[in-house]
Amino acid sequence: MTTATGTAAARRARWRYLFGQYMGLLANLTPPLLYLLALFYAPMSILLVMSFWKSGYMTLEPAFTLENYITFFTTPVYLKALTNTFAIATGTMLALVVIAFPMAYYLARLRPRYERLILYLLIIPVEINFLIRIFAWKIALGRSGIINSALMRLGLIHEPLKFLLYSKFAVALVLIHEWLPYVVIPLYLALKGIAPEIIAAARSLGATRWDVFRHIILPLSVPGLFASFVLVYIPMLGEFAVPALVGGPSGYMLGNVIENQFLSAGNWGLGSAIGFILLTVTLALVAVVVKVAGVEKLL
Amino acid sequence: MRKFRFALAFYTYAVIGLLIYLPIAILIVFSFNDSRVLSLPWKGFTLRWYRIALQRPDLHQALWTSLWIAAVVTLVSLVLGVLAANAMARYRYRGRLLFTGYVALPFVVPWLLLGIALLLFFNRVGMPLSALTIILSHIAFDVPLVAVLVAARMHQFDPWLEAAARDLGCTPWQAFRYVTLPIIAPAVIAAGIFAFNWSFDAFVVTHFVSGTQVTFPLWVWSALRYSKNLPVINAVSSVIVVVEMGLVLIAEMLRRRGDAGESWL
């Protein structure tokens, strides 16, 4: 009797609690859900749909066509930009990993005080306006820029080095500047997880330093490599400000083609198609990394 | 071993110095050079470029536009972002991971694509490009940022603290206001500073959705491409560099106090 009403009351209280939780969840979840639906997912869907619309200079008709995709894959300039994009992004990514690895290794074995100092040194510039940092490189690299004028005054060169600015080299250099912290830090976090005892044990069992690197450090740094790949390689594929400002004709990337279609050439359908190709490649790469590395390791 | 470590240390500081700080240092130093050409030799110290920069009305307008847009964007993003973080970290339900992915997806889409997609969207719904479209667009990438930063902090605190507060008679709002909020406050403030910075510095997305509005990054962009007055940009940039470095230092210190020195990403 009393137990029965007791359980009924308890059940009611439990329902009330669950109902409260449910309403609380809805109240928290709905506004951001709707906002992103309207201003992220809807626009991305429109991008996809319009890439199949018939499109010309400043015109866009809702008639299904594959023309935009065909145009992209049959125009040499666009294909050149595509290969250029992957060449620059891949080359820069490799250079970044090679440059960053010793830094991350050093950082992971450092006393906390210095460790923190270097991390601050790496993180702070990231938040400086990016255009300003590109501009800083332009001042340094230009034909009569600081590096050229300094080298000439020192008598090391007689002609300004032309490859410094408006070249693939300049794009890669500025991209390395931009993304280095995003490669060092995930690698550092991965390397920090390696217990020093493991390395000591391997050494005492007769492993050379190279063996240790090859069989312990390198395999255990793989999650960091995946994380930096997602953080760095993917945004580099969509880069357009850097090539536009320091790339010149030889550093032309897919991002410049897309920007051009939207803001100068006025062919939005073609621009959408190229954008969608880029998006597909991007999401495919993310999916591969998530599949191989697992989501938990990336977060 | 000793030598090896020394070489590593030297290498690390050299790379940071040359690849990250050298151009920024050159930028600041040459903003005081008394010459129209940004080149050696050094022509003497001047504050001329700063004086000229102070008198440019178009620059003032651009800075002001960026500031108030970033302020509005930050406020709205904090509200929506904290709500999203609540739903990501403080409730257990099926679909929680799905929602987390839903909120985080904008992170892996290049900003260029977000920019053109928003341009198409505003065009389709017949919304003229203006400060409003800039604000709406910036919120779209700031909400995921705030949500991820705040959720990371929420994951670290004991959910039973809030349950205990409820048990002791708090309303859900009181429990949030007096228990949860003080704990997540450092993360929220830090997220606010980062969100402000992202909006203030946003170039790529703004480039496509701004119409005739000129924000500060857009001013820099057009100045870089068309202006003959590079030393002035140089002076303005130096000021911005110093201010932004200061802001980030504050944000990082707040975030670290909140995290007790654990996570860096």
Structure description:
The complex is a heterodimer of chains A (about 300) and B (about 260). With about 300 residues, chain A is mostly helical. Chain A has one domain (about 65-299): MetI-like (MetI-like fold, Orthogonal Bundle), CATH 1.10.3720. Chain A is built from 14 helices and 2 strands, in the order H-E-E-H-H-H-H-H-H-H-H-H-H-H-H-H. Chain A has a two-stranded antiparallel ribbon. In chain A, strand 1 and strand 2 form a beta hairpin. In chain A, helix 2 packs across helix 13 and helix 3 (about 75-110) packs parallel to helix 7. The mean pLDDT of chain A is about 85. Helices cover about 75% and strands about 0% of the residues of chain B. Chain B is mainly alpha-helical. Chain B has one domain (about 55-260): MetI-like fold (Orthogonal Bundle), CATH 1.10.3720.10. In chain B, helix 3 (about 55-90) crosses helix 10 (about 215-225) and helix 8 runs antiparallel to helix 11 (about 230-260). Chains A and B meet through helix 1, helix 3, helix 4, helix 5 and helix 6 of A and helix 1, helix 3, helix 4, helix 5 and helix 6 of B.
